[in-house]
Amino acid sequence: MAHGFDLVDITSGGLVHNARIEVEPGYQAPFARTVREGAALPVSAVGLITAPEQADQILVDRSADAIMLARELLRNPAWPLHAAHVLGDDVPWPKQYQRGRPRHR
Questions:
Q1: Most distant pair of Cα atoms in the chain: their distance
Q2: How many distinct structural domains can be found in the chain?
Q3: Residue 49's closest CA among 1, 93, 9?
């Protein structure tokens, strides 16, 4: 891009002490959508995105171009693989993960 970046990660940051932001699953996605639509920039969404279906819906709704995960990846580093399988994508698990792979879908 001409501006020197490929993606803007959108978060309210919680830097203003008196800001009242309702913290709920996906609560930052509306901010991402506002920037995406208003500035015509590619953006990512963050903020309590924990379910594969939730992440997928944010992308389908075009609220964001990408999903960024933080605490969820700390809890489950294989979350992207799990999400792919939950959403019906046939992504192969790395060979070293095969024995520890969950058997349910």
A1: 49
A2: 1
A3: 9
Q: Domain of 51?
A: 8-77
Q: Does 45 reside within a domain? A: yes
Cα–Cα distance for residue pair 44/9, rounded to 1 Å: 5
Tell me if 21 is assigned to some domain.
yes
Along the 105 residues of the chain, how does pLDDT read in single tens digits?
A: 566 788 999 988 767 788 788 888 988 999 999 999 999 889 999 999 999 999 999 999 999 999 999 889 999 988 999 999 999 998 887 888 777 766 655
Give helix 52-60 / helix 79-86 axis angle, nearest 10°: 70
Side by side, the strands of the sheet bearing 8-10 are: 8-10, 43-45, 66-67
Give 45: exposed, middle or buried? Use CB within 10 Å, 0-12, 13-18, 19+.
Answer: buried
pTM passes above 0.85: no
Q: Would residue 15 count as lying in a domain?
A: yes
